[in-house]
Design goal:
With about 900 residues, the chain is mostly helical. It contains 30 helices and 13 strands. The N terminus and C terminus are likely disordered.
Length: about 900
């Protein structure tokens, strides 16, 4: 019988060399042309005469088993493995933008050898993935803090990140080869594609699968991973939508009870403040993961500025402020829910028009407002069908997660600082706990402080209403390890220096802005201000240093009042809780170098002097120091400090840390650094250090008195104390850290005296043993309550407070010659510095601290009168 051109008669297999020679043709037919094995055998026999005689019926053929035998030798898989199909679906899901058809995919099962992955198998695998995911994610609840962080438009959000460029495609597995078919560019979902450009069924399935995946990531608050998976165009659409929802929520919260009952995209003027997406040198796919400071501080510009205005608006350099009053003579922001015109109207956006109160018939809650906006999407210029995530699923998750939506609503009420809405929602959230919720209300409040409208009132309400069900320790330290006091230190650097976030914490190295920069503590701009919206639209993510001014009286008063609110109650956190700022680790021994609060205050003062605004005199740091001392901060506490680590010069060769107290840290600030400061800053630094040194030395254990020496017969400050309360004017014996530390803190001094009337036996946050510190605290309170800089030519301090005189007095035993004291300008105050006969010792009013009225703060167009919170503080100091 005749045999094939290769092979020997009677051999079960054709010659192996012949198989190897024809291998590429066989695999091309079988894998790439997807022919069945019988068809391949027929073609090889007819066109390539590849066969041998099967003697049983004299048929010219080669059996399927023979082919399968060689397929096995060649390592050709029978089927595409499941892991390959899964990887194919994942890889294709990263390449859906702009594509209308599925690219060719090949499985590289061996070096130089591959087999195509059939599109039908891909489609089946997609349906399997979607089905499994639907079962796993059925009823997925809304994650925590899903919306509150999206406070920047796209370009500003991009500039807020220092993250390296990451391709949204990611690496393709080595065992896959994916082709690159022509993409249909410029296709919009709003235009009907032609039959020739319509997406294939597989591509539609891929898009649906990827949208579900991204929606799940968003709902689960895996936002960093979500941003990394998206292309630039997808990120821009989603971030724009989320920022618009954030701004809608902010406007709704800020003007709750007044103005429009629903803020639409037209009212919010998104077209006017649209993102000016200009060309950048950086990669178009740089993801947004943090929020921080732009590399330059150029004056912001906008393509949408008003006609005739060549630059965007810039805020005034003059502050606004609050005036606390004991009676409800004028309380901005609190209406009577009526339609009457009058003092209950509030200024509208931009302060141009007045918004009138809502009608009584309006009964929709804030949470319902947010839910309705998610359902309809009419707050945004982005259509829901254009989103890379499923808006309907997000709305459903919010609808089935009322507690998460309530906490999100509460967060917006804190950011917007509307007292009416705040108290409305506070009544609901006070019945739940914030333990492990990811929400830190006290930190959020102190990140968006407003000394021009609310001052410390919201913090007072939160402290009194949230700390019953939630232990204060649970919300006093956040997930960064920062205390609420730390957040007040950050507020100083954020509002009055050019410092960037990694100044206070190395974990913030990828951030270029601090949280809450869009709200100025002294009321000169807000998140809805034109200047801020134009700044963000132009791609800047942080407030430029040119907008800021020195640590002013409005800011100082707000922060000092917050310190009093924070550490005044009997349930308050410990004032000496270790700080989470400027935290380092010893490179040699691995020790955690954590500071006490006063150490962090020293470094905050140093950065304010180094990077502060023109005119900075550090009066604010002196005020914070004295306020903290009066509230029990311990100047004797030592902490492990490494100057080398703080200056990022630490090495692993030997330990460089030492245990030092706060004044010892201040004394180690390099003289070369101080020489570069202004005269005002240098003087302020010397006063700050002198006050801290005096406090430390005064609280050291006193030497045993020599025999024959009597006590000082006359107190230079006694004439300013209340004569009827003499027995309470000197604190005798209780240490802020308890009886066990009385010897260390000087507890043996004057143990025969009664403590002052403000001393609290059930809290450690008090110190009233120093007449010098007490007098300084009374003087500082009076200065803050009675003086404001009314024009840009006015001094930052009044003529009643002279820093040079304070320094001379502290260096000469603490007898400070201050005009307010010498001319009897203050009302009687206690040895601890708290004024007598006041409604609220933590927040005295102007009329309560002055012996006669000499304040200049009653400027109606720049001040707001707010009522002292009632029924909260009366028992704090008893």
């Amino acid at each position: 019988m005749q045999q094939g051109s290769q092979g020997s008669q009677g051999s079960p297999l054709l010659d192996r060399d012949r198989w190897e020679q024809l291998k590429p043709i066989i695999l091309e037919l079988y894998h790439h042309q997807k022919l069945t094995l019988p068809k391949v055998i027929t073609i090889m026999r007819d066109e390539h005469r590849f066969f041998h005689v099967i003697e049983a019926n004299s048929r010219l053929s080669t059996s399927e088993n023979t082919y399968k035998y060689y397929f096995n030798i060649w390592g050709v898989p029978k089927n595409i493995p499941t892991f390959v199909k899964d990887a194919t679906v994942v890889a294709l899901g990263k390449r859906i933008r702009g594509r209308q058809s599925t690219p060719d995919v090949a499985y590289i099962y061996k070096e130089g050898q591959s087999m195509p992955v059939d599109r039908k198998k891909i489609k089946r695998q997609i349906h399997d993935v979607v089905s499994r995911r639907a079962n796993d994610e059925r009823g997925m609840p809304l994650g925590k803090n899903v919306f509150i962080h999206w406070n920047l438009p796209y370009r500003a959000a991009r500039s807020a990140s220092r993250m390296d460029s990451i391709s949204p495609f990611g690496p393709t597995p080595d065992f896959l080869s994916i082709g690159s078919p022509n993409a249909s560019r410029g296709m919009s979902s709003r235009h009907s594609p032609s039959p020739h450009t319509a997406p294939t069924p597989t591509m539609l399935a891929l898009r649906g699968m990827k949208q579900d995946e991204w929606t799940s990531l968003f709902i689960q608050v895996k936002h960093d991973l979500l941003m990394k998976q998206m292309a630039r165009s997808e990120r821009k659409v989603l971030i724009t939508y989320l920022y618009q929802f954030w701004l809608f929520s902010f406007y709704t919260a800020k003007y709750w009870g007044f103005g429009p009952t629903h803020w639409t995209s037209d009212i919010l003027q998104f077209d006017r403040f649209r993102d000016t997406d200009r060309v950048h040198n950086s990669s178009p796919d740089t993801p947004m993961t943090g929020m921080g400071t732009p590399l330059n501080y150029s004056t912001p510009r906008s393509d949408n500025a008003k006609i005739g205005d060549t630059t965007s608006s810039k805020p005034s350099m003059l502050c606004r402020w609050v005036i606390h009053v004991a009676n409800h003579s004028r309380y901005e922001g609190e209406g009577d829910d009526s339609d009457d015109e009058g003092p209950d109207a509030v200024l509208g956006a931009e302060g141009s028009d007045e918004y009138r109160p809502w009608p009584r018939t309006h009964n929709q809650t804030f949470e319902q407002k947010l839910q309705a906006a998610l359902e309809t999407g009419n707050f945004s210029t982005v259509a829901c069908e254009d989103l890379p995530v499923a808006a309907s699923r997000i709305a459903k998750a919010a609808r089935t997660s009322p507690m998460e939506l309530l906490q999100e609503s509460f967060a917006f009420s804190l950011v917007a600082r509307n007292e009416k809405l705040f108290w409305n929602i506070l009544e609901k959230v006070s019945r739940v706990t914030f333990d492990d919720s990811g929400v830190y209300p006290l930190h959020l409040l102190t990140s968006f402080l407003d000394g021009s409208k609310t001052c410390c009132n919201l913090l007072d309400g939160a402290m009194n209403n949230l700390c019953g069900r939630t232990r204060i320790e649970k919300i006093y330290v956040n997930d960064h390890g920062h205390t609420v006091l730390d957040n007040l230190f950050i507020a100083v650097l954020k509002g009055h220096t050019s410092c960037q976030p990694d100044t206070v914490d190395d974990k913030f190295a990828k951030m270029r802005r601090f949280t809450g920069e869009e709200v100025d503590i002294c009321g000169r701009w807000d998140a809805d201000s034109s200047c801020v919206r134009e700044l963000f639209a132009d791609g800047n993510s942080a407030i430029p240093i040119e907008w800021k001014h020195m640590f002013c009286h409005t800011s100082i008063q707000t922060i000092c009042h917050c310190i009093g609110r924070l550490f005044g109650p009997i349930f308050a956190p410990k004032v000496n809780t270790p700080s989470g700022l400027f935290l380092k680790t010893c490179e040699a021994c691995g020790m955690r170098l954590q500071m006490a609060p006063l150490h962090s205050l020293v470094l905050t003062a140093c950065h304010l002097a180094q990077s502060g605004c023109p005119g900075e005199n550090l009066f604010g740091m002196l005020a914070m120091l004295v306020c903290l001392l009066a509230n029990g901060a311990d100047p004797l506490l030592k902490a492990p400090i490494s100057l080398e680590a703080l200056m990022r010069k630490d090495t692993a060769t030997e330990c460089s840390h030492e245990y030092i107290d706060a004044i010892e840290l201040a004394e180690r600030v390099p003289a070369s650094l101080i020489l570069g400061w202004t005269e005002e800053a240098s003087l302020g630094w010397n006063v700050f250090c002198a006050m801290l040194r005096f406090a430390r030395d005064e609280r050291r254990p006193p030497p045993k008195p020599s025999k024959g020496k009597g006590r000082v017969s006359e107190d230079p400050y006694q004439m300013f104390m209340e004569p009827m309360e003499e027995e309470y004017l000197y604190d005798g014996g209780s240490s802020d850290d308890g009886d066990d530390e009385e010897d260390e803190m000087g507890g043996e001094e004057d143990t025969d005296e009664e403590p002052c009337q403000h001393h609290k036996f059930n809290t450690n946050n008090f110190y009233g043993r120093s007449k010098v510190i007490g007098t300084m605290w009374a003087v500082i309170q009076t200065e803050l309550l009675t003086y404001r800089r009314l024009s840009e030519n006015d001094p930052w301090l009044s003529e009643n407070f002279d820093m040079r005189s304070v320094l001379d007095g502290l260096n000469n035993g603490g007898l400070v010659p201050i005009k307010l004291v010498e001319e009897d300008m203050m009302s009687p105050f206690c040895v601890c510095g708290r004024f007598l006969d006041v409604v609220d010792e933590a927040c005295a009013c102007v009329g309560e601290v002055c012996s006669h009225y000499f304040a200049n703060v009653d400027v109606w167009e720049r001040s707001s009168y707010i009522m002292i919170p009632e029924n909260h503080n009366g028992s704090w100091y008893w």
